[in-house]
């Protein structure tokens, strides 16, 4: 019987750092995916707004830019998280990691951008910047914006954004499962 010495086994911290480093996606994949995913999410919002017959071009443009920006920023983060969770995994868990990561990151960043835009509108009525009262107003305005996005904004992902989510998770599957 052979007993492995503790000198041969890597320290758990070293393995964790290595896993975080391996999870970094190739920059070209992250950039191309961000552009494509941002376009897909912007197109999803545009299609939903046109189906709803919105008649204010400036508002349509703003919403489409917010959704495209949320998708573009969310994609590299989602790819990193999915790789972190599923490097070397079978296809099913890797697809699940890609699907959930892509959905959460896209919705999260789009909601964040919506909240910042919402906050910039209401800033003219808020207290002096960086005061205690301003901080309370900032938190409440951002929370109200995220709630409003959840109620009114999430529907702009359906049906096209959900279909794109499925296709996007499938397309990124190769990059999720395999480390550099």
Report on the architecture of this protein.
This protein has 180 residues and is mainly alpha-helical. The chain has one domain (12-177). It has six helices and no strands. It has helices at residues 12-23, 27-51, 57-86, 91-122, 132-153, 160-177. Residues 1-6 have low confidence and may be disordered.
- The structure class reads mainly alpha
Number of self-contained structural domains: 1
Sum up the overall morphology in one term. flat
The overall strand count is 0
Report how far the terminal alpha carbons are from each other: 36 Å
Relative helix content: over 70%
Q: Return residue spans where pLDDT drops below 50 for at least 5 consecutive residues.
A: 1-6
Mean pLDDT: 90
Radius of gyration: 20 Å
**Which percent range describes the beta-strand content?**
under 5%
């Amino acid at each position: 019987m052979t007993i492995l010495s503790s000198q041969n086994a890597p320290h758990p911290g070293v393995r964790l750092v290595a896993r975080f480093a391996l999870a970094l996606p190739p920059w070209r994949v992250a950039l191309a995916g961000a552009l494509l995913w941002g376009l897909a999410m912007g197109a999803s919002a545009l299609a939903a707004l046109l189906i709803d017959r919105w008649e204010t071009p400036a508002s349509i443009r703003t919403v489409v830019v917010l959704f495209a920006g949320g998708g573009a920023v969310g994609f590299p983060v989602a790819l990193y998280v999915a790789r972190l969770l599923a490097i070397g995994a079978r296809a099913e868990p890797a697809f699940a990691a890609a699907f959930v990561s892509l959905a959460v990151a896209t919705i999260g960043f789009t909601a964040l951008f919506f909240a910042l835009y919402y906050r910039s509108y209401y800033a003219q009525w808020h207290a002096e910047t960086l005061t205690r009262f301003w901080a309370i107003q900032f938190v409440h305005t951002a929370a109200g914006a995220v709630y409003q996005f959840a109620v009114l904004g999430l529907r702009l992902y359906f049906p096209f954004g959900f279909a794109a989510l499925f296709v996007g998770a499938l397309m990124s599957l190769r990059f999720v499962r395999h480390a550099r």
